[in-house]
């Protein structure tokens, strides 16, 4: 009898330890960095100051599918990319175009959105009708973005770098800048808010895909992100987010 009691007590203790271990493990915590100055993909709620947007909803949906606990960190875009390259963060989602150069220092998920660069000018501007008219002009883009890469390629143009893209659009409206190069969903969003002040000119002139970046030391985390991304695509979540955040930006 004594041996039976000891055995039962031992099993109870073992079960308690297992349950405690399970409880301690909990959901995997993931630090997600972004630059919340890029509506409608990421911006700060004016009241709560919490990040909102297409990318925020997308990452939360993936986290729900894969049992991840997300902590969003809001810093400038260039610093976010540098931090990801050094694995200071687990994940980055911030309308990040997948490029060969960025692949050298971070992992990327499967693409989740297609975009491209477009030129925005003042509403009354008659001199610039496409990217081809930008040589000799003063053009702006946000530092670290593919828009900045394209702006710097234009021979004879004066390029001005901005820490946040809204300042570039404000300078176009005030006449201090001739044009802005930026992702078309973002540009159309600003144009939609200021249709009497700015306009898009010419076609979208690059073909880009957004991806979710992950620390290059965490391929297993990337696998979870891709699995969750595939699941929410199949559930129609991407289409729902397009309707929620992007339909109003279409011309």
What do you see in this structure?
The protein is an alpha/beta fold and 251 residues long. It has 2 domains: 27-114 and 209-249, D-Maltodextrin-Binding Protein, domain 2, CATH 3.40.190; 117-206, 3-Layer(aba) Sandwich (D-Maltodextrin-Binding Protein, domain 2). It is built from 9 helices and 15 strands. The chain has helices at residues 2-25, 54-66, 77-85, 100-103, 146-153, 165-174, 184-193, 219-234, 237-246; strands at 28-34, 37-38, 42-44, 51-52, 68-74, 91-92, 107-108, 113-115, 117-122, 138-142, 158-162, 179-183, 198-201, 208-210, 213-214. The strands form 4 sheets. It has a 5-stranded mixed beta sheet with strand order 5-1-6-15-7, sandwiched between helices. A 5-stranded mixed beta sheet has the order 11-10-12-9-13, with helices on both faces. α2 packs across α8 (219-234) and α2 runs antiparallel to α9 (237-246). The longest helix has 24 residues, at 2-25. The protein is globular. Residues 4-11 and 17-23 have low confidence and may be disordered.
Task: Write a short abstract of this structure.
The chain has 251 residues and is of the alpha/beta class. Helix content is 41%, strand content 23%.
